[in-house]
Design a protein that fits this description.
single chain, 177 residues, mainly alpha, Rna Polymerase Sigma Factor, Chain: A, Arc Repressor Mutant, subunit A, 2 domains, 8 helices, elongated
Length: 177
Amino acid sequence: MTTGSKQAFLAAIEAAHGPRLRRYFSARLRNASADVPDLMQEVFLRLLRMENHEAIRNPQAYLFTIARHVLHQHSLQQAERPRTVEIHDVMAELDDLPSADPAAQVECEKRFEELGRELAKVSPRAYATLILHRCDGVPLKDISEMFGVSYTMTKRYLAKALTFCQDYLDAAERGDR
């Protein structure tokens, strides 16, 4: 297949299915505005690498099969690279508050307890993983054995907890909470 016919094939696919593919990704991504263009590009790059486009009997089905694979790979990469939020940093920020003001201390403790309650509601295992690992120093491998889940799932629980804490603190800073 010539480069021109590949480009024509991709242009036709994008024109016919591009908006639906964007909606597909947007509905499944947390940070759609940043991630959708990259994932769209990856789908079309994979299509471009194909040698024989004529062999595709159902281009829409093939496109969304590739999209599912790209989305799955993206999700795995995101789980492996959790946003860096260290509980020790959060605790250090709490310690930096003026200790002479008892009202500020009480307010800070209330907000920290509220954060814990909200996280426990969202995901009790993520909450337990965060507390066991970051506060009690229990290794993730031991936590995975306690919960009877894989080590990877335990890492996801921790990533979920840390992401929740960061989002919660960001919302509180903006005044959303």
